[in-house]
Design brief:
This protein is of the alpha/beta class and 292 residues long. Helix content is 32%, strand content 21%. The strands form 2 sheets. Strands 1-10-9-4-8-7-6 form a 7-stranded mixed sheet, with helices on both faces. Strand 2 and strand 3 (55-65) form a beta hairpin. The two termini are 35 Å apart.
């Protein structure tokens, strides 16, 4: 198997070559610069820049995420990972460039059409689990009976069927995260953004929820973008890992993990493939480009 640091010969690939690579389950590969374009992307970010009080936060950020693809963003604090999610979701407006989500280009169009789970669960303390879960549907104008039925149908899959009448303060951290994710997934938007959803959890609960998340998304064709500081989590969950650098925030590398069912393989964490991927990503984070 080729070493995962083997670079793509070009920064771009034709749709035919990309399809061939996918069908052959190619090993992890790396592209210096922007991530590879993909035909039929559900999410496209092109040359996006963002300033805050005249200070550049993001510069010329470009990436695409395809249908059913899981992409992870890693990088040092302050490199603009969460800001990028806020721009994609429509919470913020970019200064330059374009963002297209499922054909929607305007910021106001994207608001409400992209599912976004932020770092904190942000459950409303005065609402029950069921009421929190159906919030997204209610904001879309669906009736209480319709939204309650939808919550009930997914509650067992999310492992919260027995706590629908509970209040948030009665739940563990892991259960609160499940409720927050159900709330994000329930509107069935084609793009799902996750901003460090498991960062505050203990290692055992985090691993359990990582496995559970992949099982939930396995039957989905969503384009998923995960922000994480955990390199191992990025490798285990994502199809591609994108490394960002600061000052201003930009993409410096895109890495294909190239393996399916990584969490189901108990030997993967000790495999040479995993160790090579981890070493490559950490090496990218430690280069002079990444120094703040």
């Amino acid at each position: 198997m080729p070493h995962p640091s083997e670079d793509y010969p070009d920064k771009q690939m034709s749709g035919e070559n990309a399809s061939t690579m996918s069908s052959q389950q190619a090993p992890p590969q790396i592209s210096n610069g922007d991530t590879l374009p993909r035909s039929g992307a559900l999410l496209s970010v092109s040359d996006v820049g963002f300033d805050y009080e005249h200070s550049p936060i993001l510069s010329e950020v470009s990436l695409e995420v395809g249908k059913g693809e899981f992409l992870a963003l890693v990088g040092p604090s302050g490199c603009g990972k969460s800001t990028l999610l806020n721009l994609v979701s429509g919470v913020l407006s970019q200064k330059t460039g374009t963002i297209v989500s499922n054909g929607l280009t305007g910021r106001k169009e994207r608001l409400g059409s992209i599912s976004y789970m932020q770092q904190k669960d942000l459950l409303l303390p005065w609402r029950t689990v069921a009421e929190n879960g159906r919030l997204g549907l209610e904001l879309r104008g669906e009736s209480t009976s319709q939204s309650s039925k939808a919550v009930g149908e997914l509650a067992r899959v999310f492992g919260i069927a027995d706590v629908l009448d509970h209040m948030p303060w009665q739940l563990s951290g892991g259960m609160r995260q499940r409720v927050a994710l159900l709330r994000a997934v329930l509107p069935d938007n084609p793009v799902l953004l996750l901003d460090e959803p498991f960062g505050a959890l203990d290692a055992i609960t985090r691993q359990q929820l990582q496995r559970w998340l992949l099982n939930v998304l396995d039957v989905s064709e969503k384009a998923v973008v995960l922000v994480t500081h955990d390199v191992e989590e990025a490798i285990l969950l994502a199809d591609r890992v994108v490394v960002m650098a600061p000052n201003p925030g930009r993409i410096v590398r895109g890495i294909h993990t190239g393996y399916d069912n990584k969490l189901a393989d108990d030997t993967f964490l000790s495999s040479s493939e995993f160790l090579d991927l981890k070493s490559t990503i950490l090496g990218s984070l430690e280069t002079e480009e990444m120094v703040i």
